[in-house]
């Protein structure tokens, strides 16, 4: 997005000036409305700074916990450090007083910034017309361009607010629904709305503002604004929200209408005809540099300035500047399918090519050297801070960065992409119509959608016509295709699979070598997981908020 970071920093400073009481109560973001509108009315450029502010709260999903990926709290990976927040999370050492992923207050500050902009934007024509030429041809052109942009920003504020409510919803379940700014005299103790009430609010925000959003910034004459919400990304959000709402955790009676709602929302993204899967040969570079921004697979991505934190965090410790970070698990690696005969001497040969794209394995050539985890090797697993699993992360990382000289590159964090939409569609379509049926008005069958994703990576078609078996095939494909993209934990929750999967040990491999130098591989347990099904399907509301509400705000069960 053009100048998004510059504007974001400025608007964040302005927001902090006008917000009061954030340290006392996360909902107590009361605004002194007596002077701020006057300031804005005298300077229309401030209008757009406030329009950008809700975007400045977006979380880069490369750095969700321990300044790293969320994968280490799932069965996808294990943290190298024994003192990490992710390890506290996976061992159950978290509660309403101490939660490593507690962004409750940040999300409400973001919501309040959207609320404030929407209230101020009711008067956008007057604000944008003050102290400027709206009559001459040259001035009028700029004025009308700003009016058009203001309409987009107003619609986007509704969508970004809905996005933050979904981030709260998937963590806490029902939460207080606040759609206005609080004045100094207002009572900020608000009761929790139900899960379905929040879902309905999110969907209404999207439906009521969809036509006022840009269809697709990237393919428009305003491509410099790409990175803001569009019709495509709003509908992708709707697809994800309704898929979660239809899933077993939130739909225990398996109401087919909920699945149908998710199906129709997902089909709407496909019907836009704006997105497609990156071609197979190009997919290996999809997550590199600016490839995510130019690809038609990307629906929405968060931009970031150049940095090298991902590489510093996750390069092998034996690579200068690396610290091993989070390391993929054998649990995940074992689930990558064979596409040819198994090779007893090389368990990574003839596998789903995404394994080589996502994971650095024994014998991989990575950063100008061959990875060797065996005794005496460069990556000898007995050495301090080497991988606990025998694997290193590759997905998202740029190879061969000179970290000692602080070389940096762009990392763009994809939030919605077309592969997820196809997998959402396959899942919902299967629940409503089964793997093979199509009433004729929908884009494709569930099986066709799933196989599009598989075929892109050279995998064979799923052939089953059994709904239950196909459901497992969809779960498998999401595990592989979307690995490390912050889907796994939430998928396990919504499917109610977390209690089975997240109480199993995390496995790695031990590599030794025979006298002739050929490697041997042996699986071993390297970590444990603890998931208490009586309470952990939802986060606890921060206890400080419960206490300050004087009984108005209720806690989630068993916390």
Strand numbers in spatial order across the main sheet: 1-2
The quaternary state of the protein chains shown equals single chain
| Overall CATH architecture of the domain at 1-62 and 102-213 and 547-559 | Alpha Horseshoe
CATH class group of the domain at 1-62 and 102-213 and 547-559: Mainly Alpha
Query: How many H/I helical runs?
Result: 21
Note down, in words, how this protein is organized.
With 559 residues, the protein is mainly alpha-helical. The protein has a domain at 1-62 and 102-213 and 547-559: Alpha Horseshoe (Serine Threonine Protein Phosphatase 5, Tetratricopeptide repeat), CATH 1.25.40. Helix content is 40%, strand content 7%. The strands form 5 sheets. The protein has a two-stranded antiparallel sheet with strand order 1-2. A hairpin with a 5-residue loop joins strand 9 and strand 10. It is globular and about 85 Å long. The protein starts with a helix and ends in an 11-residue tail after the last helix.
Q: What topology emerges from the helices and strands here?
A:
Blueprint: H1 4-18, E1 19-20, E2 30-31, H2 36-41, H3 44-52, E3 77-79, H4 85-90, H5 104-120, H6 124-129, H7 137-172, H8 195-209, H9 231-246, H10 256-271, H11 280-283, H12 291-294, E4 298-302, H13 309-314, E5 326-328, H14 330-333, H15 354-358, E6 359-360, E7 392-393, E8 413-417, H16 418-433, H17 446-456, H18 467-481, H19 488-494, H20 498-501, E9 506-513, E10 519-527, H21 543-548
Antiparallel strand pairs: 1-2, 3-5, 4-8, 6-7, 9-10
